[in-house]
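Researcher: Good morning. I'm working through a list of sequences from a screen, and I'd like to move beyond sequence-only analysis. For each chain I'm collecting a predicted structure so we can compare shapes side by side. This is the next one on the list. No need for commentary yet; just the structure.
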Amino acid sequence: MHQQLSLSRFSIGLGDRFAHQARAQLRACVQAADAGVLVVPVWNKSNREHTIIGSDPVQTRVAADAAVHELHWAQPYFCDADHINLQTVDRFLEPCDFFTIDVADQIGIAAAQADFESFTRRHAGLLGAINLPGLSDPIRISEADLHRVGRKYLAAVLRAAENYRYIEHARGRGTFLTEVSMDETDTPQSPAELLLILAALADAGVPLSTIAPKFTGRFNKGVDYVGDPRIFARELEQDMAVVRYAVDAFGLPSELKLSLHSGSDKFSIYGAVHNAMMKMDTGLHLKTAGTTWLEEVIGLAESGGDALALVKEIYAEAYAHREELCVPYAAVIDISVASLPTPPAAQRWTAEQWVDALRHDPHSPAYNSSMRQLMHVAFKLAAKLGPRYIAMLEQHKAQVAENVTRNLFERHIQPVFLGVRPTANTAEALRH
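Model: Good morning. C-alpha cells for this chain:
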C-alpha cells in the first residue's frame, strides 16, 4: 500500500468551531518548529458541529489556507472530515484531504458468516504468543480473541472499507489520508484485539494513516484524564508496539500511528505519551477540538466589559438548558450540578473570577471542571448568537488569539511532542 501524502511523525488535530482561530492555532505549530519539532496541523470539524453552527467544510479549508499563507507555513497541513460516514461525507469530499471514518454504529453487529469464516481462517496463524520489540511480555492471541474480533469488529471494518472506497473513487487514490475511529464503543480494545482489527483493515485494503482505538479510562471533553495513568501508559506502549508490528506484518503504510481522540487537556498522561513515543520510536496524532472554543470564551471573559457580559449570557443560557445540551455528550462529560454557580451568583463575578474558574489549571483552587465542561458543550448557544458572537471575537481578536496559541503550545504541544512539562511558573503565567 502506498500513499503520496504523508502526515509526519507528530501531528495535532485542531478544532476551530467558528473558523476564527486558525492563525492562532497554526502559530503554536510555528513555535514548535522554531523549537526544532515538526507538528503537522490537521484542522478537524465534524458534520454534527457544522450542522449545529450552520457552517460548511469549505469555511474550515478557507480559514486554514489563509492562516498558512499569512504565517508562511511551508510544511504539510490537512483538513479533516471528522467522524464521517457514507451519509455525511459528500460535503467534505472537495475541501478535505483527511477523512476520519466513524463506524461506531457497526461495532457489535455480526459480519456475514462467510466473511467471519474467511477472517478467522486467514489469521489463524496469529494464534499464540507474539514477541514485539520494546515489550517485555509477548502479546497473546487466543482463539476466543480471534472469534470475538470477527464477531464484534469485522462488520465495522468492512463498512470502513466501503467508506474508504467511496472517497477514493471520488477523489482519487493517494490524494487523502485515512483514519478509522474505533474509540466509540463500550470497552477498550486489548492490544491483541487491536492487532486483529489492523489485520482485518489490511485485508480490506484500507491504507491507514492513523487509527483511534478506545483506551482504558475516561476521556471527558475539555478536562483531564480520569483513570490510572500507569495502566494507560502500559496500554499505550503495547498498542504502539502492535501498530509497528502490523505495518510490517500486514503491509500497512509505514507512517501508521495511533490517534488519541478527545486528547485535549489530558495533562496527567502527557508525560506518559511522550515517554512512550520516545521508547517505541513512533509518533502520535493528538486530536483536540473544544479546547480552542474554551480559550475563546476565556479570552472574552478576560477582556471584560461587553465581552464578559456576553460570556455571562451564554453561561446563564447553558445553565438553564444544561440537560438538553449535555445529552449528546453524556458518555464524555461528568458534571456536578452542585458545583455549578447559579447564574445570579456568576453574574456578580469579576473577569478574573471567570477566567480562574474556566481556565484548565488543576493547581488553581478556583478552577471549576464542571463549569468548564458545561461551557464546552455550550458552543451551540454561541452559534445561535450568530453575528453578535463573531463580532465580539473580532473585536477582541488579540486577547483571544494569545490564549489560543499559549494553550496549544505550552500545555499541549510542549509536554506531548517536546517533552517539556509545564512548571509552576507556566501555570502562574497562564493565570495572569
